[in-house]
Amino acid sequence: MPVPEFLKQPLTVYEIAEQYWDLKFIPTPYVFSLLALVSKDKLERDKCNELSSPQGQEDWLNYCRRPRRTILEVLHDFHQSASQLTIEVIFELFSSIKPRSFSIASSSSHTAQRIELLVAVVKYYSKLKKERLGLCSNWMKSLHCGERVYGWIKQGTFVFADAPTPLILIGPGTGLAPFRSLLLERDAQGKASKDSLYLFFGCRNMTQDFHCRGDLERLVREEKLTMVCAFSRDQEDKIYVQHKIAEARELLWPLIHNKNAHIYISGNAKNMPNNVKDAFIEDVFCKTGGLSLEDGKKLLKDMEKNNRLQTETW
């Protein structure tokens, strides 16, 4: 099996398990087919065959995917089968830890010798009422100054329009990262202006998770940034970035219609991007711009086609 160059060789199985294998992955149906091949316990073998079959997909979803049951928990549940695993099957069973991608949150012109990341430490409870910790984020949290992290830099997906084209940046949570990089870069170049940089930032509480607050408030004070914040939990009714976009529609429509503004959306891919796009269509394009719903949707598609609307979500 291919092993990254930075892992010393030769390696013991223990070292591979410790440094290379993902021990928290959610087993696929294929994993259960492997367990069925080696199992000598009829009940466990029958169950593994069921979970790996096309007819057993709903059972697999309920047992593995929805409760986010890990491979180690599955091996514990199917301990008779797990005891029969050979070294060959173990190597077939486990896969390598997948690289994690993070947007750089710093500017090379601002901090030339340092790369800064904005990382959310993942911690939640599954439907099994068991604590789940994000593998990479919690490992990074455990590091101390001076410890080595292996990684590489690749080109981001955003292509920002040159100043003075207005940029409308929507980055709730850690979606702020690429925009902080941009803002600090424009600041260092002397190209930051409140008339061309518009940031919509969102988080739960102003006092708890207002990321990079010092940098952003400084740019606002120096009239280098126009910022609108949505703090979803600081009042009874939850307020998100799409609500702030709707409120700012009188500001945003002239920027888009008259000044060729570009829109950039960064953050969680679950609901936010579509909610933001809907706010632009319904509130900015239709209510303020006077477009029909059909024409509003067409304008959004045209902006996406011409790279005037770009998204970077995960």
Automatic annotation (TrEMBL):
<keyword id="KW-0560">Oxidoreductase</keyword>
<keyword id="KW-0521">NADP</keyword>
<feature type="domain" description="Oxidoreductase FAD/NAD(P)-binding">
    <location>
        <begin position="169"/>
        <end position="276"/>
    </location>
</feature>
<feature type="domain" description="Sulfite reductase [NADPH] flavoprotein alpha-component-like FAD-binding">
    <location>
        <begin position="8"/>
        <end position="139"/>
    </location>
</feature>
<keyword id="KW-0285">Flavoprotein</keyword>
<dbReference type="Pfam" id="PF00667">
    <property type="entry name" value="FAD_binding_1"/>
</dbReference>
<dbReference type="GO" id="GO:0010181">
    <property type="term" value="F:FMN binding"/>
</dbReference>
<dbReference type="GO" id="GO:0016491">
    <property type="term" value="F:oxidoreductase activity"/>
</dbReference>
<dbReference type="Pfam" id="PF00175">
    <property type="entry name" value="NAD_binding_1"/>
</dbReference>
<dbReference type="InterPro" id="IPR023173">
    <property type="entry name" value="NADPH_Cyt_P450_Rdtase_alpha"/>
</dbReference>
<dbReference type="InterPro" id="IPR017938">
    <property type="entry name" value="Riboflavin_synthase-like_b-brl"/>
</dbReference>
<keyword id="KW-0274">FAD</keyword>
<dbReference type="InterPro" id="IPR003097">
    <property type="entry name" value="CysJ-like_FAD-binding"/>
</dbReference>
<dbReference type="InterPro" id="IPR001433">
    <property type="entry name" value="OxRdtase_FAD/NAD-bd"/>
</dbReference>
<dbReference type="InterPro" id="IPR001709">
    <property type="entry name" value="Flavoprot_Pyr_Nucl_cyt_Rdtase"/>
</dbReference>
<dbReference type="GO" id="GO:0050660">
    <property type="term" value="F:flavin adenine dinucleotide binding"/>
</dbReference>
<keyword id="KW-0963">Cytoplasm</keyword>
<protein>
    <submittedName>
        <fullName>(diamondback moth) hypothetical protein</fullName>
    </submittedName>
</protein>
<keyword id="KW-0288">FMN</keyword>
<dbReference type="InterPro" id="IPR039261">
    <property type="entry name" value="FNR_nucleotide-bd"/>
</dbReference>
<dbReference type="GO" id="GO:0005829">
    <property type="term" value="C:cytosol"/>
</dbReference>
